[in-house]
Design brief:
Elements (H helix, E strand, L loop, with lengths): L2 H5 L18 H13 L2 H21 L4 H37 L2
Helix pairs in contact: 2-4, 3-4
Length: 104
């Protein structure tokens, strides 16, 4: 390592990248939930597997350990399920509100 880099306090040890948690990536969670709402059966299963494998591969490229990758992907899957339930609940509430407005 050059003396200039040591002067700005870069260490000689290997640096560790800590990725932002997948479950906290709200736009990604919402995108996946939206996609899964519109496809079903084998197409949904293939989409889901492809998406989760791509996320795992991205974390592996960053140097994450297998256990951390597994935990991240599982937490992400949970967040997508929660988002899908929230969206469904919102639709039911909107339908109920519309029905309520139509009754005199």
């Amino acid at each position: 390592m050059s003396a200039a880099l040591k002067d700005v306090r870069f260490s000689d040890s290997e640096e560790r990248v800590v990725p932002f948690p997948l479950a906290g990536q709200v736009s990604l969670v919402r995108r996946c939930a939206s996609e899964l709402e519109n496809i079903h059966g084998e197409a949904a299963l293939q989409y889901w597997k492809t998406e989760c494998r791509a996320l795992a591969a991205r974390l592996k490229t960053l140097g994450c350990a297998e256990e951390a990758i597994s935990q991240q992907v599982m937490a992400f899957q949970t967040e997508v399920q929660v988002e899908m339930m929230r969206r469904y609940s919102d639709r039911l509430a909107a339908e109920a509100q519309d029905a309520y407005r139509l009754d005199p």
